[in-house]
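OP here, attaching both records as promised.
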Amino acid sequence: MIFPWNKHLRSNGSVVARSRGPKDDCCQTHKLSAELLQSALSRGEIWPAFQPIVDLQSGAIVAFEILARWTDPIAGAISPTQFIPLAEQCGLIGDLTDKILREACVIALSWQGSFVLAINISPVQFHDHELSTRILRTVRSSGFPVHRVHVEITESALLENDPSVHATIASLKASGIGLALDDFGTGFASLTQLHAFPFNKLKIDMSFVRSMTVDSGSRKIIASVIGLGQSLGMTVVAEGVETEEQATLLRRMGCDLGQGWLFGKAENALETGKLIERRLVGDLSKRKPPAQLFHRVHQLDALYTASPIGLCLLDTNFVHTSVNPRFSAMFALSPDDMIGHTVHSFMPAHEADRVTSDLVKVLNGDTVVIEDYRPIGSDRVFFVINQRVDDDDGVAIGISVTAVDVTGYKTLETLLSQTEDHQRWSIDLSPNIPWASDAAGVVNFMGPTPDCSKIDVDARIEDWMARMHPEDRLRVRQQWLAWIPSGKPFQTMFRMRLGDDGFHWMLSRAKPHHGPDGKIIKWYGVITEMAAQQSLRDQLLRLENVGASPQDRSHDVTFICADNNYDQQIERPAKVYQKSEPHDGLSRSHYVSMLMRMFEGAPIAMSITTSDTRMSRYVKVNAAYLKMTGRSWEQIRGKTLLDAGSAIDNTDRNRRHQLLLDQGYYELEEVDIVRADGSKVPTLISAQRTTINGTSFDLEIIVDVSERVRQQREAENALKVSARTDALSGLPNRAYFDEVLLQRIAQARGPHDVLALAYMDLNGFKAINDTLGHLVGDEVLRVISSRLRSEFATQFVARVGGDEFALLIETDKFGAIGLQQMLYQHMQNVFKSISISGQTVTSGAAVGVTILCETDNAHSVLQRADDYMYIAKSTSQRIAVVYLGDIDQNFRGNEKIISAAT
């Protein structure tokens, strides 16, 4: 209630009121007098109106301000700006306040919720020594809780330094009544008075709120008042909020509550009761206040200081105004060394000029990003972002600089680049080219090619295919596709160009990978140069032969290879190799050195172990093996393969050893290698057993396929999401809804758990399609789906048919009590008018809601919700909800219908 002291006309105890009467259309002059006002009070023509005050963060109504309204049978509505001054002048303001407060408390006592009632007390009333007693007596006689009543006091009441005024305010506070300082900012209340009086609320005058979107001064005043009030422990209310833009700004500033026509105008008791039924009502005493401004400043300062990245702010003159330790450390300085200075104070002139030039660009509106900034004299590398900082009016007030230390990433990037180049140049030395395909045989991965420009997987596949001999391409493809249905390991030979020295004969092998259901889900393969494979065997023979005594050279050396279905295509070496001297002119020492360097430098992990099954021990591993397993040679030297901490401790090792024993090799075995840090690396391992002088050794070659597995899993997850999602709405589809419904039913069997199912069918949707077309109909479905997802963000919403949706709500018995109000409120928001291509489209829904009982299954609860939906449909209302209200009684005969006007 506002007291416009200079806006009424006074004349000898009377006020001239100009208003429009309800019984005629003309303006008439109505002379107000004390007698007329007294008569209006006795006849009940003056009544309480209620204007909501809402929580700006949640939107819940937490209070109502009680405003006096006068409806004269002749003059109609008489403005408070006319009769309130008359009541003060004639000494009737106390009686008016008592009447309005008593009626408001009696009415509000019947409403649900723990909201507060606030009433404005005129400054002249504070001269009444019985004011506190009268207010308490009035509230207590109504039965309304005293602690839920707030008295609003204007600043002018504080200006009179009257001890009786102070005593009245103290008495009200001591009785449990809350105090609010109204219209703050328009009077002359001092900070001393503000601190001295125990106010609960501080109300910002509407004049500042109404101009805040166009006046930066108003915004600054509001921000200051919010900070001041919250720092003194007060709840801050903004009056006169009329637009969503104002509300958004106030939320950003941290304002607690809002009041104004945006949230609702002052209404009579009947309309206010309806408002409470459809709006969320909160408890102001339980509202969690935001962190106070000075607390937030300290929190931000702590975060700023402890931030793991460098941060600094410069003013428009490029002077450092704030610097955190990470940023100053870039230049081997402290924050104090930089604050108050420009870059010219600590950088060489040429570097400072370059940085200043970038800052000028930023101040002119550009965002300057430096990906590789290296401070002079430092070995660190930083990723730096320079951005302009503007105030609410878009005026530049400084520059924000963020610096991230990327030295480690740059080092890793260099190493990866070197590794990639090493792999390309080493294809001849390590002729194993990994590849993979899907279950249908479509190749979707191949390793690096000699062409360094082929980076992505598709380019690699295309390059490798182009390198295959033209005469072999069709034959190999036909063999591969014809073989897939067998599900058995595959291998074939073909010619391929590796470099500029012509074609080489290659051996390609593949093995199927099965899913949990036993079906093939992918194939893994490897391509090996046959000449290099044979050369490797010969080199191992020569290695063993070097250093052997003459009498040893009469012993045979046999490479054990098993026969299989491909012996007709590939002849495995089954003959006995005699030890001999190297025939290439190399000395034994040079030959051993060369082979060891080839083994140790190969980019693919390799190991040599003894062939003692469970007691096999490591003989030699290369650097790539140690890198893959995350272990050092000292950690695994001499260990058996099944020792705790060994590089490959896999439950299937015994089976693989049996393969080596039975056939002398195994290929493309899927093994998860456990690294030293506990992480797992998916790999494909191939092994060959070699017997030298009666002693068997196993050579393993291990290919890391973790990237391919990651890509495969991402693809599988994407397919799973696609299979579960309705393409038009983006919501879960019917199949996924059925799956989730079964899961939720199984979970909602606790004594306090409640699972509600809402089944809805759109009203008027067919007419939209028929009159406006299916494109508009599709857009309507998208908008409604988006609104459903927003309104029920924490619940499961699905599109289960053309214009049918389902909603699963998990709550408890107490939440179920308020389910009716909550659903209806959200449906009002979902089915607001939609503007499409200049046309306004309005739709609604029939909603059937039921609650899961102990004997229900998915079919029965869905059927009951569907039945209720058809009952709602029969009401012919635009929005109708049929809801089972009482969860503790039988389901039948206990439906409640809520509907909106058509």
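Record two, same layout:
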Amino acid sequence: MTSTNSELKPQANEFNAVIDKLTEHITNNQDRLDFLDILHQFRHTFDTSKATQAHIAIHHTIPTADVQPTSVCPFYKTPQQREVLNKEVEKLLHDNVIRGSTSPWASPVILKKKPDGTYRFIVDFRRLNAVTKKDAHAQPTTEELLNRLAGHRFFTKLNLKSGYFQIPISEVDKEKTTFVTQDGLYEFNVLAQVLMNAPPTFQRVMNNLIATGRWNYVVVYLDDILIFSDSIKEHKKHVTEVLSILQKARFTVSPSKCIIAFEKVEFLSHIITVAGIEPSPDKIQAILDIPSPKTLTQANRFIGKIGYYQKFIKNFAKIAAPIHKVTNKPGPKKREFYWAEEQQLAFDKFKQILTTPPLFLNFPDKSTPFILSTDTSKVRVGGVLKQVVNGNLKVNYYLSRLLSQTESRCSTTEREALAVMWCLDKLRYYIGDSSVTINTDHKPLVNFHKKLNFGNKRVDSYLLKMQDMLPQIVEIKYKPGKENYDADYMTRQDNQGRDEKEEWPRGTVTWDDEAIATVCTRSKTKQQQQQPLLPTNDTVVLNTPITKNASTKPIPATTTPIDPTHDRIRRTQEGDSNLSAIGQIATSDDGNHYALVLTDNLSKYVIAEVYPGCIAKTAANLSVEKYILVHGAPERLIIDNGAHFSNALMKAIIQTTNIKHAFSASYLPQTNGQVERFNATFSVQLTKYCNKENSDWDIFLQQVVNAYNTGIHAKTGFAPYELAFGRKFRSPFDSTSPVVKLPRAADVYKYIQRSRKIIINATCENIRPQQHLSKPRYGTNRKDSTYNIGDLVYVKVYSNRHKLGERWLGPFEIIQRCGDQNYIVGEQGTTRTDRCHVSQVRQVVEWHNVALLAD
């Protein structure tokens, strides 16, 4: 008896030290004494000196139907690993977690090395799990549990010690948990974590034991039990009741992981107070310690960890978009990994946000109606849940996500309806049975929840899915984008994702402004609002929808601009430019019947001027005054073979400006394709505005050119104006005037250089697929030959040929070779020469050579 008392005394002293530490923060002496008494009353629940099994009605079962038992040989272990394995088995036997077995089932053991050099004991139950019938018991969601804690002041958290090992397994199913080592077979008496249905069984046990009937003051997530109350008096009662249940069922809690009667508690990696919720500092630090990803797995791990806290991060989907380009690639490229500057900027931006207070959300006030602001763009949906409490606007939740490819192809109305319904579904735990007013910037959705049939199958399906929450919607209000700024901003990059709503001429159309109002039709969007000079991040918008126009509609002068700058910085033109003349066009009332056109190959930007006559002086004027002196000299100028270009004046200008030049082949528009492509578009569009006599075509030329330059080019994916000038084109019909904010010139220069590099790379990437598509179409069955100087060739006839006339003239002699595709040919015995493309010539084959081939 004396020996027993001497053993209990140290244990009692140790327990007293533990509970003193658990209650030392309670400042009220009486409250502290009360909690000490409670803990003493249930001291056996805190006794971790030996392992215990709970006395509960529910035992874990492993339904495997009538499948044959599976067994494998033990995996090879080194002598050091065998020593570790033997110690682990001895410990489990001592705690009655396992026992010896003669089962026909056998799963192997894996020892996984941890960073500190020790090993983790794992039984590989994959074969058993594969034949186990799945338990569909639902786990409570994090948001559901956190929302239950709203508005409560006192918290006590209890953590079960080795919680899974306290849940017994059904006797008939123990043999299925057998694992094999070099020393024999062992089977589990209690629940092992890696079994298929271990979490559902654990949650069912805890729900039935504690949570059921006590939902208003206790929540349970597996082995974490959180008791919450409004007053300290209530809290004492609630803690007593929960500890009584645990002790009766012989559950043991781990004192080192418990906290008693705190006003701030960490639960499910969140810090909870009476006012609201914030991320756990430890988890934030763990994210900050993550280095830049080197593999796809690391990138997915980072976006998963940061995504757990996305409700705290405004514009989460927008910021994460560059990383999702890496992690969400479709099809065969889904395993490819790259990490460029764009991804690193998003990575750093997230870390910056996590270290910039406040990261805090207010708990909802159930007595106050909610306000839900929603919005969508072509790429994402988002929303903000708010409440006005005592005259102060409080944010409860941020949410946003990327749209799927199918969703992004939906109409604007369908996407706006999706935003409303998706946000309501995600926030149903927060909203509960409270009323909610929804703000949207899409007027057709005003009170659409009250309509039995909206007239759109997709929208009607959304209404059907959310019919249980429709009665809670007080009103759906229309708020323009500039007023619905919080949700609107979450779905868009700066100036990105403009929605094509409808096109209409601005203002009253009169005879004087008819041409301008018609040509310069544009989409009125939410984004026509004040813009900062430079974006807060370093991203550049590279995605834009291409407007497809019917042949009877004018080219809309719409743009989806890159991040704007109000400083007029011109970029130096690079690459090739093309110069050509269009004529003769019908003589206008002002006497003009020529148009000279110059196009930049990369940006597709067009400059055009009208002239009464196409002579050398007019060509020189366009090249120098309208192009070179304004935009800088191109690297190379490709010009056609008109006399107005191949003259001494043009040659002098080209030499003086140090421009490389090349002539296109006669009668082959493909060699000057950029400008010829515009010429074709120009003619069709100009015809729409001219009178019957076409005598006013020169009046509308610049409007058509402007529409072309500010519209989205199908090949590059950008407006030519944006690529040429690196900024947004501001139409004279924009209803708002941006506030100009001048930063340091050095910052603007760095931003423009960075933006320009990204945009040009993106443009080249957009052009490349188009070239791959065009090449097979143009090059099918083509076998262009290579000719040497002195070879005799025939030249194709293009002009003045009737149907029965000769198609080829010659022979002519190859005099000079100009690159791989062009040749100078001359008529034998004369000084007359001409430039021809390789597709325009055919080699002369003499008859005796033909005869030899025939033989």
